From TrEMBL:
Residues covered by the Cyclic nucleotide-binding domain: 1-77
Protein name, entry field: cAMP-binding domain of CRP or a regulatory subunit of cAMP-dependent protein kinases
Keywords: Activator, Kinase, Transferase
GO molecular function, one term: DNA-binding transcription factor activity
UniProt cross-references to Pfam families, sorted A to Z: cNMP_binding
Organism: Paenibacillus uliginis N3/975
InterPro entries given in the database record: cNMP-bd_dom, cNMP-bd_dom_sf, Env_Response_Regulators, RmlC-like_jellyroll, WH_DNA-bd_sf
SUPFAM superfamilies registered for this protein in UniProt: cAMP-binding domain-like, Winged helix' DNA-binding domain
Amino acid sequence: MILHKGEVLFHQGDSGEFLYHIKSGLFKVTRLHENGNIVLFNILYPGETVPHHSLISPKETHGTATAVIRSEIEIISAKEWYRELKENPDRPLEVARLLQEKVRFMQQRLDHLTVGTPAERLELLIKWLDDYSQGLHLTELLTQEEIGQLIGVRRETVNRLLRGQH
């Protein structure tokens, strides 16, 4: 399946009938809170199978995944995935590797959030996304508000930092 920028892979609260293997592209995952705040809390990238919290057992989706660039996805039946997990002795180790990779990614993101200045954090985010962005600039992928959420600063600070890059 091909999704284009702005198209939704799954919505917050979906039942979890499917898992998705990201072959190419990028997705932002946002969560709508009861108070109306929408928070960007994850970026999904090629090689991942998602939702992560449903790799071993089903659970409704925690957020909404929206394509930020043209993306190719393999749709996987959750029933088939869980059956394979039980029947194939190698599958649990594969799932453990997927989860390990995501934990390492999250550790890297935490490192990026705690390093130096906001400008340095922005630069680290840009460098990381360059590997997946198909040549698009950060601001073509994410809003200033979303960039701020990823690097731990306010939108106004992102605006100032981006102006300083040109």
